[in-house]
Fold this sequence. Notes:
Blueprint: E1 5-8, H1 30-46, E2 50-53, E3 70-73, E4 76-79, H2 92-100, E5 104-107, E6 119-122, E7 125-130, H3 136-147, E8 152-157, H4 164-167, E9 168-170, E10 176-178, E11 192-194, E12 204-205, E13 210-214, H5 218-225, E14 230-234, H6 237-240, E15 251-253
Parallel strand pairs: 1-2, 4-5, 7-8, 10-11, 13-14
Antiparallel strand pairs: 1-15, 3-4, 6-7, 9-10, 12-13
Amino acid sequence: MTRRTALVRRPGPRLADGLVTHLEKSVIDLDLAMQQWEAYAACLRSAGWETVEVPAADDCPDAVFIEDAVVVAGDLAVLTNPGAAERKPEVAAVEGVVRDLGYRVERLADPGTLDGGDVLKVGDTAYVGLGGRTNGAGIQQLATHLATVGMRTQAVTVERALHLKSAVTALPDGTVIGWDPVVDWPGAFPAYEGMPEEGGAHVVLLDDSTLLMAASAPRTAELLRGRGHDVVTVDISEFEKLEGCVTCLSVRCRG
Length: 255
């Protein structure tokens, strides 16, 4: 596994039925969502990532948010046990894909629940959001598995956002960035900085200096460019209506 691979899953026909927790339901333009998803995947490929499509799960409206189904670290892929019952069937098709990529596979089980969007890896630490979709038993199970690849796990309270990575992500130097109104515990991180827009809390590290961000955060993009980062932006407005962000539309497998 020397290549950079990104797992993706295209939007299904029931996308508009996706769950929302902290937002009001909005009208979803499925055709526009598909165009935006294609553009997102193209951004990954143009940055040198090979995209691998996980088989569709058309009966699961939220299946496009593939990050919630699996946590990857080192040679390990941990299949999650999503906190929303409607999302549990999303996980099954992921197993064959990660096995084909050469990962050893573990899985989380009841009574533990965990969504991959609650897991932020910074160096050798996995910060895991303890909140609505992820419980303590799920975090304990994940910690046991991640210890086998030399990672420590720290729980972080999440009450104001859907997932931990709805509130914070990390820059290449390990600084955790977030949108202050939805960050419950900024002191959990050795280095934290608030960003001026909600979408500015979400970055995907395409390489050591390039960040992928949503087009909805232009001020943050300019701020980070001013600090020497290359920033690529993509419009994901239809997914943001469903509490999605740039991180949850792929699983980056660095091998």
